[in-house]
Amino acid sequence: MPNARINDSDIPEGRALDMRRYHAATARLGTASPPTPPKILAVAARSFAQRPVARQSGPRLLPLAGFIWGSRATPPQPRTRADHILIWVTAGQLHLDFPRQQHVMPSDSVRYIPAGTAFAAWPKPETEGHALLLAPALLRDIDPPFPQHPLAGSAGESGEALLSTLKELADESAKPNSEKALHCLLGVLALRLARLEPARANAALTPLPNEAQRPLVERFLTLAMAQLRHGPTIADLAAILGTSTAALDHACQNARGKRAIELMHEVRLQRAVEMLREGGQSPAQIAKELGYTSHAHFTRSFVEATGQRPETFRDQSG
């Protein structure tokens, strides 16, 4: 796949990029030189966008190596899109930034981002994968429904089935009178999203530069809450925060009178209590969601902290 990429922020909403012209353009840009500067990429993208292109209302499947979204700054800054997007990294990594969070999507990771969500995305060199664009009208009355909030996970063993569904959607969108088939395939895709494996631990969250203005302990607690399901160590979180475990422990003891690991246990327990009161998930599911090594580990920790089993606490809170 050529390294040269076309900035999708310059492609008008609702328009499809003719893939034959896309590949011809990237071939002319060449692969021997370093990645082309964003300004040149924007000019190349506009040359295509200014040509008459028929509006497409069906799904659009794009190669992830050529998908960049965001403002024209370097790096791109978050912007909203009018369509939903499914991003699947099959090789390499992709930067994915939201207004208050920065992520690096590793290989095998999947993200679903609903329309109207501000984000920026740009792949690293040699990144491969797929970007599926879906107009909101396509997802009306889909059963099961698509998520209403951003969703993260890993394709895992379902990768082959997910790829087959994406290819079928792309094929059907090119056929006339394919509304019923698309409706059925979108239902299958929604089901596959609901069954994604948990996001891998190396899909690390990194703090934005302005986060450095907040006290270290506050940043630590926010990060710990966001990363619970990945089961990070204190060393992992300290590295992301740009400090050492000793310095983090010292800050936590000064601010809260407890070590970092103790505060992290409290954050995990607090979230477990909230989820049990909500009643939408079983204790086993909550254990997996919050990064406990097993249901038994969750039960032991919860009983030690509250004197009750998670199931008993949930029943009494219902």
TrEMBL record:
Residues 218-316 form the HTH araC/xylS-type domain. Keywords: Transcription, Transcription regulation. Gene3D superfamilies: Homeodomain-like (1.10.10.60). It comes from the Bacteria. PROSITE patterns: HTH_ARAC_FAMILY_2. The keyword Cytoplasm does not apply. This is Helix-turn-helix transcriptional regulator. It comes from Paracoccus saliphilus.
